[in-house]
Amino acid sequence: MAETNCKDPKCPIHGQLRTRGKSFTAVVKSAKMHKSVTVEFERPFLVRKYHRYEKRYTTIKAHNPDCINAKEGQEVEITECRPLSKTITFVVTKIVEAKKQ
User: Is 1 within a domain?
Assistant: First the structure.
């Protein structure tokens, strides 16, 4: 799971980063950035005119520590933390499910 020799200061397990606030389980859509991932999760949205729900998707960028190293297609848990950059305010805390094939 998580390595013991992680030297990332922004790691919630081995570093000094504290987590707070919201947490989600989401699927990694892109892992092309350096130490960052883009995750996507589904949420229901009420269409008031028809009194029905539709699926909508939310994408969030999150920091991906070296010890976790999530890949595309994996289901991960992300938790809110302090702003790490202009667009990143979440961090990957653990991998929930291995890669689906």
Answer: no
Q: Which pLDDT score, from 0 to 100, does residue 6 have?
A: 82
> CA 79, CA 76: separation in Å to the nearest integer?
10
Query: What's the token pair of residue 22?
Result: 């919201």
Q: Is residue 6 part of a domain?
A: no
In a domain, 86, yes or no: yes
Query: Residue 72 has what DSSP assignment?
Result: T
Cβ-proximal residues to 97 (8 Å cutoff; 6+ apart), any chain:
74, 75
Structural Rg of the chain based on CA atoms:
15
- As a dihedral over the C-alpha atoms of residue 62, residue 87, residue 81, residue 3, rounded to 10 degrees, the angle is 30
Domain that holds residue 83: 19-96
Q: What share of the chain is helix, strand, coil (3-state, %, to 5)?
A: 0, 50, 50
In the chain, the number of structural domains is 1
Ranges under pLDDT 50 in the chain: none
